What does this fold into?
Amino acid sequence: MDDSESRKMRAERRRQNQDDSPRYHQGQYIPALENPESDMGICAWCLMGFSILLVLATLPISIWMCIKIVKEYERAIIFRLGRILKGGAKGPGLFFILPCTDSFINVDMRTITFDIPPQEVLTKDSVTVCVDGVVYYRVQNATLAVANITNADAATRLLAQTTLRNVLGTKNLAEILSDREEIAHSMQSTLDDATDDWGIKVERVEIKDVKLPLQLQRAMAAEAEASREARAKVIAAEGEMNASRALKEASMVIAESPSALQLRYLQTLNTIAAEKNSTIIFPLPIDMIQGFLKQ
It folds into this structure.
């Protein structure tokens, strides 16, 4: 199943849950919004009224405690008497809180990067390798990142480590060394699916380094050297065969014209003399010494 089909299935499940359960707010699962403000008791309303009266009585000093500012890359999740306010995250810019009943948490929406510590993985072909990587992610929904998980950053880091081991455990060593992009894409899809309910969007995953055992490196180097030597011997043998064929054709041409052999002798003498050599070799035809050999 590809990524588009899995996303469609998740969206369909969310729509069904949104229709059947009050725990969904604006298409997102938020347990803290299970009971809206209309279900608050009399005590809660009394505390809110007292807080408002206290703010009005201490104006304008209290205004500095009510006005808060969040930066462009941040969002604020406001809790009123322990419950998340309707409307989701606030910001960027100014927003107001009640000093006695409200508290807020700032969530950074920028892309966060972290290194996956080196993981020792046993591959499918029983080879132990040490692999590390880097993950890029950002908070897509600040309300989910606060309400659905205690520490989204730590959870994403731990999940990235286990996902790296699980994905590489299904690959051979050759696949790990050659298909890094495919492995990174598979990890990104898995992490994105797992962190979707936390309001986390995994943007990119990269495999940094694959460390092999020293003995395995030596074995692979010896195998590569032997393969190169074998190819070199094959190439040398093919060159010798081609050269012998060329010499055979040349000898056939010379045999058809005896004068061509004499011209070749003279050309060889010319080449030797051009090198300023003190030794000159005069070839003696075999026909001249055949009579001596018979005697």
